[in-house]
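Sanity check. The docking grid for coproporphyrinogen III depends on where the pocket ends up, so I'm generating a full predicted complex first rather than guessing from homology. Inputs follow.
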Amino acid sequence: MRVLAGTCETPPPVWLMRQAGRYLPEYRALRERTASFLELCFTPTLAAEVTLQPVRRFQFDAAILFSDILVVPLALGQPVTFEVGDGPRLDTDALWNLRDQVDHARLEPIYETIGRAKEALPSEVALLGFCGAPWTVATYMVAGRGTPDQAPARNLAYQNPQEFGRLIDRLVEASTEYLVRQLRAGVDAVQIFDTWAGSLPPTEFLRWCVDPVARIVNGVRTAMPGAAIIGFPRGAGTSLPAYVSQTGVTAVGLDWMINPAFASAQVPASIAVQGNLDPLVLRAGGAALDAAADEVMAAFARRPFIFNLGHGVLPDTPIVHVERMLARVRGR
Ligand code: CP3
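Predicted complex below; grid placement will be based on this.
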């Protein structure tokens, strides 16, 4: 939280996107006892336990709420299921009969998870909430599943921008309310995941990534002045400076493809950066991991910086590699 407020800490605080999940044996054991991934997300005692697992094992400086970005479409009335080993499936027939507003009763267990996790965490560990950015969530809602190139949503945005804009507007409103409620329930900061930001050309990026996120940031801060918000526009590339200046985020998460010198020069010194170790080098381990971790640390040493990956932990990442990386970052 100090880094988000603009101070420079040595060593930097560290957490990892997707730090709770399948690479942890304790997660797999608990997951085996639940019928579905969504049941796990909507059972506060279990979701809170999974939120805490990586912090207990690795003493990360932040915990991230265990849930998923696709609970928002679910609460808007679009059925969502997760097929094991096959990713999410959404009912596209339901796309044009969504509720005007999210069903907050449906999301209530998530706020309860936050309360439980917050209570169990040591006071020096931050609790992060999150949502998906409207563009990324819409790519799943329109296609009904994950896609390699987000073509169904990009196509709809070109062919029927009014209709697509109404979907984005609904997601802006739902996500704003959802984040405000997470903050009221006890998260210290929130992250907005825009995993598929990189699939849009620059003009479309401003329209469908930057503008909706700017509206969410504004809306959240109207209800919760000073709220700390981390934006993660994966693949933003040379549009990163526009994203940072026009959304008003507190901090920006960097993917592993971006040039750190470019990011450091283009992001104002008052804005914290987070990232950006390649998840694959964490999985690979060895000398390559040491060198890559050192390189990330060196690139951002003189600015407010949170050590993280450039995207989520891969499910087959060895635990010893995470331990090795942490020792390296923390200088022991
Ligand atoms: O970071 C964390 O540890 C907190 C929990 C979290 C999950 N998903 C748990 C999860 C967070 C923050 C997310 C975000 C999320 N979900 C994103 C944005 C970040 C990213 O990774 O790109 C996206 C695009 C999703 C949608 C989603 N959820 C997909 C495409 C999948 C299937 C692919 C996969 O990794 O399995 C999920 C499922 C999912 N979300 C799992 C977990 C732990 C695996 C489900 C299982 O355990 O069976």
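Relevant for the grid: Residues 242 and 299 are 21 Å apart (CA to CA).
Also worth noting: The beta strands are 62-64, 80-83, 87-90, 126-132, 189-194, 229-233, 251-253, 272-277, 305-309.
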